Each structure stands twice: as structure tokens, then as C-alpha cells.
Amino acid sequence: MIEIVVVGLGVLGAGWLLRRKHRARTAAGPVPGIPCMARIPAGEGRWRPGRVFEEQGAARWVPQRGEPVELPGGRAGGVRVPSVKEGISINPGSRIVTCTFDGGGSIEIAVMPLDVRELLAAVPNC
Questions:
Q1: 107, 99 in Cβ contact below 8 A?
Q2: Of the given ranges (19-28, 55-64, 70-79), which has the lowest mean pLDDT?
Q3: Percentages helix, strand, coil for the chain, rounded to the nearest 5?
Q4: How far apart are CA 12 and CA 114, in angstroms?
Q5: DSSP secondary structure letter of residue 82
Q6: pLDDT value at residue 10
């Protein structure tokens, strides 16, 4: 009988904490930027989480840890779905936008399908 009471109190405590966290997030409002994962250079390295921001016509990718990466003028190489191997690292339902820069560099940015238009609008040349 004591176990049932302890489990019930645990469930009530967890519910209270989850509700409190949910209210704090909704009160804070939406987070600016486009959530994504990026890989520099394209086809190599690790997928790193971050956000793409557009400020004064210039886009930049800000990783969760590390220095921001400016996204200078370039060309979009296309939009594709992730491979099975990439789907393990990133969300398999996401779309990957490949960008090449004038200087020869490249970046792959993975976003959810609903964010692809917003990304292409934020980075029109890329």
C-alpha cells in the first residue's frame, strides 16, 4: 500500500514539474531563427545543431557551441532527403540543402520540411 502512495506522489510531482516547464516555455514565446543541423564542409565531418539567422540581408549559422559561421553569397546545389546513414545522425524526415560558396567552400544545412521555404528565403543566394 505504501508503494502505491509513493508512486502516486511521484506521478503528481512529475506532472507538476512538466506543467510548470510547459507554462514557462509558452510564456517565453517563439525562439528566433530557423532550427537546423549543419555540416561543414558538405559531405564530411559531423552534423552540428544550431540555428540560421537572417540579419540585414546577411545570413549566418550559429551553432549551439562554437563561433557563428557567415553564409556569404553562393549557389544552392539542391534539396534532398537524407540517406539511411545520415538519417541516424539527423531526423530522417528532414531535408538537406547543399550550398556551395564562390571561394570553393560548401555547407549542408538540414531542416524540417516546413522550414525549407523559410531557409531558402533567408539565404536567397545559397
A1: yes
A2: 70-79
A3: 35, 35, 30
A4: 36
A5: P
A6: 96
Beta bridge partners of 106: 100
Q: What local confidence, expressed as pLDDT, does residue 15 receive?
A: 96
Give 93's contacts (C-beta < 8 A, 6+ positions apart).
112, 113
For residues 37-71, b (16+ Cβ closer than 10 Å) or e, as one string?
Answer: bbbbebeeeebbebbbbbeeeebbbebeeeeebeb
Question: Grid coordinates standing for 5?
Answer: 502512495
**What are the pLDDT digits (tens) for 74-120?**
666 788 999 998 888 898 999 999 887 777 788 899 999 999 888 88
The grid cell for 90 is 539527423
Query: Which string of DSSP letters, residue by residue, matches 43-75?
Result: TSS--EEEEEEEETTEEEEEESSS--EEE-SEE
CA angle (99, 104, 110) in 5-degree steps: 20
**Residue 105: all three cell numbers together:** 567552400
Model confidence at 61: pLDDT above 80: yes
Cβ of 98: how many Cβ atoms within 10 Å? 19
